Amino acid sequence: MSTFAHQGVYSLESGESLHGFNIEYKTLGKLNSKRNNVVWVCHALTANAEADDWWEGLIGNGQAIDPAKHFIVCANMLGSCYGSTHALSINPDTQHPYYHNFPILTNRDIVGAMDLLRQHLSIEKIQVCIGGSMGGQQAIEWAIIQPDVIENLVLLATNARHSAWGIAFNESQRMAIENDHSWQQPTPTAGMAGLKVARSIALLSYRHYGVYKATQTDQDTSKLENFRATSYQEYQGKKLQKRFNAYAYWTLSKAMDSHNVGRGRGGEKAALTRIKARTVVIGVDTDVLFPVSEQKFLAAHIPQAQYYEIQSLYGHDGFLIETSKITDIIQQTNYLNNTLIYN
């Protein structure tokens, strides 16, 4: 893992600013002599820069995105708690953690920080930028902001504008955090009980009815309580509670809410036409959080875009789980196979 430290004032879309920031990032493989084998991975809400860990099956030795062929970069997004500047970082103006005073971030702010990292790494062209969910939102933003930098774009289970449905899910999760009495206290552990509940709520949008039926249905029909689904929700809440924090969840869920590529650009359709990258858009048929209509919209309005749909029992999380199906799409898409990264 490496850290990029930006020393200057970084102006945010809200009108606020950060007086410097850090971005934690990881690279795999080597930049070739032609500098044309860069694959940049944009991670989702609670993931990190260890893309070969959470996207195992797609990234790694012998996989579609292979460090033996590609120079792979994944940066922990600004506002996240895996080494990048976030609410528990020290505010250089006060010499105390930001806590609740951490500024509002948008995906454009996060992408702008990643683009500064790109320049720091002397990367002129990104051959493939790939991302799903919130990471896909950022990949779209980046391709609009820097249309001559990103040559190929792979977008999974994502959208041009976060929906009212998605915002409502996020607000319900933040309400759980807000109703944790500790949330009002400026401490590192504020809101952590609420975060467990928030994750339980979120999981209902990430998964699908079918996968719960298949994996969490009790065989013992005499039960009156303590169902498998009950313990599963408890387990998933505690799992996130151990590795994340409520401040970062609050910050990044709000960044997702404000995602709208059309803001200040004449609407989503007009903004998407700015993308020059050859684009693959992949939807998951059972995704209730980012329904396939949103990916079809992207494919319809991004020039040179192709749409593919995968069948999955897993709902939105299918973009993380169905790696063999995603690999098949990447490998059969001729204009990606013809790029130098696969030679």
Report on the structure:
With 343 residues, this protein is of the alpha/beta class. It has helices at residues 51-54, 107-120, 134-145, 164-178, 192-206, 209-216, 228-243, 246-257, 268-272, 292-301, 318-321, 323-332, 334-337, and strands at 2-11, 17-28, 38-42, 71-75, 90-91, 96-97, 128-132, 152-156, 278-284, 305-310. It has two domains: 2-162 and 262-342, 3-Layer(aba) Sandwich (Rossmann fold); 166-255, Rna Polymerase Sigma Factor, Chain: A. 38% of the residues lie in helices and 17% in strands. The strands form two sheets. Strands 1-2-4-3-7-8-9-10 form an eight-stranded mixed beta sheet, with helices on both faces. A hairpin with a 5-residue loop joins strand 1 and strand 2. Helix 2 (107-120) crosses helix 3, helix 4 packs antiparallel against helix 5 and helix 4 runs antiparallel to helix 8.
SSE blueprint:
Elements: E1 2-11, E2 17-28, E3 38-42, H1 51-54, E4 71-75, E5 90-91, E6 96-97, H2 107-120, E7 128-132, H3 134-145, E8 152-156, H4 164-178, H5 192-206, H6 209-216, H7 228-243, H8 246-257, H9 268-272, E9 278-284, H10 292-301, E10 305-310, H11 318-321, H12 323-332, H13 334-337
Parallel strand pairs: 3-4, 3-7, 7-8, 8-9, 9-10
Antiparallel strand pairs: 1-2, 2-4, 5-6
Subunit structure: Homodimer.
GO cellular component, one term: cytoplasm
InterPro entries: AB_hydrolase_1, AB_hydrolase_fold, HAT_MetX-like
